[in-house]
UniProtKB/TrEMBL annotation:
Keywords: Signal. It comes from the Bacteria. It comes from Chryseobacterium ureilyticum. Belongs to the beta-lactamase family. This is CubicO group peptidase, beta-lactamase class C family. Residues 1-20 form the signal peptide. PANTHER family: BETA-LACTAMASE-LIKE 1-RELATED, PENICILLIN-BINDING PROTEIN. Residues 36-336 form the Beta-lactamase-related domain. It holds the Pfam family Beta-lactamase. The keyword Signal applies.
Amino acid sequence: MKTSSKILAALLFMSSFSFGQNITKKIDSIISDNYKKNPEVGISVGFINNNEEYYTAYGNLNAESQVKIDKNSIFEIASITKILTSNLIAQAVLEHKLKLDDYIDGFLPKEYVLQQNLRNKIKISDLASHQSGLPDIDFAKLIELDPQQPVSNVTQSTLTSIINNCSELKDYGKYRYSTIGYTLLGQILEKVYGKSYDEIIRAKMIKPLHLTHTLTTDFNVKNITTAHNPNGGIQEFFKWNITASAGLVKSNASDMVTFLKAVLNKETTIGKAAIITEKIVYKDEKREMGLGLNIVTDDKNTIYMKSGDSMGQSSIICYNRNKKWGIIILLDYRNSKMRQDLLNKIYDTVLK
């Protein structure tokens, strides 16, 4: 009987291993085909399936380098930073430092003075699900001022003026993507922990998970990729300042897979916090939102995803908690359509 059990266990392992190999081969085929059609776009992909990791990458670090992109190559994950920020907010909930239904008034820096008709209206969950109704930073104008480092012109004075001069929440309760909302979430975290956002994310995410290739303010490293705007021109990585919690982080496929492992593990602090971020807090005819996460469902699956686009790179992260898989796609070009098309093809042909 024991021998039969061992044989059965071995057969199940072999079946699972074969299934995993089949998935990874199909993903690699899709990525390889995309690179053949777009050899100017470097790409790195990390995939996790039932805690097993897989990586594939194509292209060089830059046009002058013969060094190949791999799982450790550094990319801007840009707005994927927002789900790291929302996870930190959820950790603060677990620590009873705040509640998602708390109004933001008592958590804001003293420079902000909400006008009377806006007080005790905007909740922390509203900021995290892009439905606060607050006016946002004018990125188009900032790009005109400095196309390489647009956020360099955003200061505390800029933010104070936007918030204090706001007299009406024109679309409160409706989805409108907001950088200023996540900037305020970062400042709320700084107030409740008494530390800078950089210190908080290092203490609660980077160090505990040993994310040795996840960078914040200092990213002068050898294995950094070159960013390209949609026209192929070289683009600098953003030097985020006060808006850090909306897009600061630079990372790689390996560290993002480690993050996904923690998210999918309900026993980790990050996993417990992730479950909080996955609860639907906004819904309309076009989308469902958790805290920073887009939630997509069909008859068999619920997946959570977040994209990131800087001026010169594009990325997307996606996972299915029930089926225990997750994927990160990193491009060294700004091409939101390409990264979305790649995810759609991988999902429809391999993961669905």
